[in-house]
Amino acid sequence: MTDKKLRIESRLAQIGSIHEPVTGSVNYPIYQATAFRHPRLGQSTGFDYARTKSPTRSVLEQAAAELESGDAGFACSSGMAALQTVFTLFSSGDHLIVSLDLYGGTYRLLERILSRYGITASYVDTNDLDALEASRRPETKAVVIETPTNPLMMVTDISAVCTWGKKHGLLTIVDNTLLSPYFQRPLELGADIVVHSATKYLGGHNDVLAGLIVTKGAKLSEEVGFLHNSIGAVLSPTDSYQLMKGMKTLALRMERHQSNALALASYLREHPQVAEVFYPGLPDHPGHDIQNRQSSGNTGIFSFKVTDARYVEPILRSLELIAFAESLGGVESLMTYPAIQTHADIPAEIREAVGVDDRLLRFSVGIEHPDDLIADLAQALEAARLEVEGGQSR
Ligand SMILES: *Cc1c(COP(=O)(O)O)cnc(C)c1O
Fold this sequence. Notes:
Blueprint: H1 8-13, H2 55-67, E1 72-76, H3 79-87, E2 95-99, H4 104-113, E3 120-124, H5 129-135, E4 140-146, H6 158-167, E5 171-175, H7 180-183, E6 193-197, E7 211-215, H8 218-231, H9 237-247, H10 250-269, E8 274-278, H11 288-294, E9 301-306, H12 312-318, E10 323-324, E11 334-336, H13 348-354, E12 360-364, H14 370-389
Parallel strand pairs: 2-3, 2-4, 4-5, 5-6, 10-11
Antiparallel strand pairs: 1-7, 6-7, 8-9, 9-12, 11-12
Helix pairs in contact: 2-9, 12-14
The structure holds pyridoxal-5'-phosphate.
Pyridoxal-5'-phosphate binds near residues 78 and 146.
């Protein structure tokens, strides 16, 4: 090979690919060991105890750092464990500015747990620099953004927020779960920390719970490394292997998720029982241009509002191919009802202010054939219409 940097598709497929001289294994083995023999007093192989550093997890962590263009990666036992580890950078009295339309679990962590340790948060539309400025206090330490947000798919201009944050000495933390490094790399746009629920697109098969943190800069990497080891919410060797196996096909899956989501969003937008579709991949979405500028593609998640809340229950009951289940980012299509599921911990007034109401459904479009997904939605919408309105088939 020349020393030209490989394209991301090749780097993904080759995660953990080693030139192992003894067996010639083409993928990296699972090292279950929790303890590592020291050659002599004062010497180490680089591995001492598995919470601190473990071979299979290290390969994953290096790949994550490299894919996100960061300096260090840390694999955690879940996305929430990754967020908790990052939030432990802050101390009593510190204040955070956080995206308004936020993952429910992150909101719960901030409001029910970190608040007890004196860490406070303000929830703002992070694409509104005036709102950011108005919520900034002397004790503000960081801006935490999700873009696009889930479930309303609001897009934030990452570099604008990073530029503003740097001016005021704030860290910018981006939850990049919905796009993955295949489509969006926030550290290249000026962010300091990227967090993933790797349970979603990176794992990709609804079968491994994991989180990742990637940091930029030696000092921050060292601080997060200290917290990762000290808190101990680290990923196991088998789950590290499982996650890497999923990541090898990330490029193929993301392309298919994107094209399927566009096909389904376009279908639903024209449907008479659908009032609104929220998808940045549609040209009239308010965040479409920013999204195209800062990312090389679109997520496979979108939300839509039906015209009548009474349709929701029969739709969820009638879907056959698409599963009614929480989570997102896997090869299997899943439909969720955010108001009572993923976002139930967010108070009703905040939820409704951003638009997460009882007519909103979130769709994580899998990699099935788009025509089969359209057919399933069509029959479920029709079944719901007949139930609610009685009367004849259309
Ligand atoms: C799922 C999710 C999380 C939490 O991750 P877990 O792996 O479920 O702990 C955090 N942020 C976003 C955007 C998510 O979708």
